[in-house]
Amino acid sequence: MHFWLVLSLLILGCARAPIKNVQEAMRVASMPELTDDLEWNGFIEGLEAQVKFLKEKSEGPQQFGFGPRTIDRASYVRALEFLLVEARADSSGEKFRAALRANFEAFEVYGIERWGEIFMTSYFEPVINGALKPGGEFTQALYARPKDMVDVDLGSFVPVRPSLSLLDKVPLEQRSRGNTLRGRLLASTDPEKSPKVVAYPDRAGIYNGDIKGVSQPLAYVNPIDAFILEIQGSGLVKLSNGKELKVGYAAQNGHPYVPIGKFLFDVIPKEKMSLFAIESHLRSLPADEARKVMQMNPSYVFFKPLTSRGITFLGNELVVGRTIATDYTYFPKGVLALLQFDKPQFTDEKATEPSAWAPSSRFVFDQDTGGAIRGPGRVDLYAGRGNVAKQTAAVMKNKGRLYYFVPRAEFLATLESAPLP
After folding, report:
1. What digits encode the pLDDT tens for the residues 297-327?
2. Can you list the positions of beta strands (E) in 320-355?
3. Do β-strands 234-239 and 127-131 pair in parallel, antiparallel, or remain unpaired?
4. CA–CA distance, 412 with 161 (Å, rounded to integer)
5. Nearest CA among 288, 28, 252, 284 for reference residue 139
């Protein structure tokens, strides 16, 4: 999903000074133009699913932080229910927009270079071929979470080791709540010695067989397809027996994500860098050379079978064109926002470069996160599944604007005393 990190820094140059705390991540702004370029029923379905999920799932943060404002989860859900009623009221969405203007404030994000402005990329769910047994081009296993992997919760050590408090404030792995180190549990053959936890093998170690016997292969696929699937986080494998296997993120090996694009500027010009360009270069190399390049990213993702579309960090299904991933250190998960950006236009489904860019604006749901989606000015938009979605995701690397909608205090007080229509 996220090889754009180093490229974004090169494109944007010097970013703003880092913010000192999460209260500085947003501020009140003028209400933007509330336009939406996607099908309205799809938004209603997404909003319905979001409300249902937040009401049924009690775990997770019980407060949503919008910069200087904090709102109880239950109150925010009730505000979303109110909006859902208005969204269903007419197919044009005008009642919904009127309700937003009257009862909510728009908050703009801190941004990368200026308030409200974000750097935007996109991700998708690949559809690839594979088999249940290795053979031919299908040599790379998609591994399940290893049996010997453990999660070390650093936060639980802070009370007894206060010096760890600095580490506890820095996200070590974006897809884990709290600060978690991934490690390998090594049993001791000496009964007088305790088992110990060591760092989990990096990508090179996993490629070389360091997890054989402790991780179940879910399927075997082309190595480059596997690498792209890891970056995206979820996808669909069409098996040689005619069946399909949906897979999603299960765990990560604890090593930092390193975008391999930064090692390829000698063969791919910066202005031409894209997923298509990187994939084409990898496929042009002998297998062992391609592996060496991929090993420059020590991070490795483990998968689990799914029965649905890919699952977000929040825990619900991805919504095509409307799920966004942001840094959960700064932005709450499960909330409504508006994203403005330029979307690529292609002459046909095989084109790898857009012929033009068109303005786009839509309501989105902040539900996901990612290893390279860090800071108060990064957004990743879920484009969908398959090659058409890949076409968009592969070239998206633009600036845009992001606004969050925060219910006014007096509106929340009214909701507490009056039943929903």
Report:
1. 999 999 999 998 889 988 899 999 999 999 9
2. 323-325, 335-345
3. parallel
4. 41
5. 288
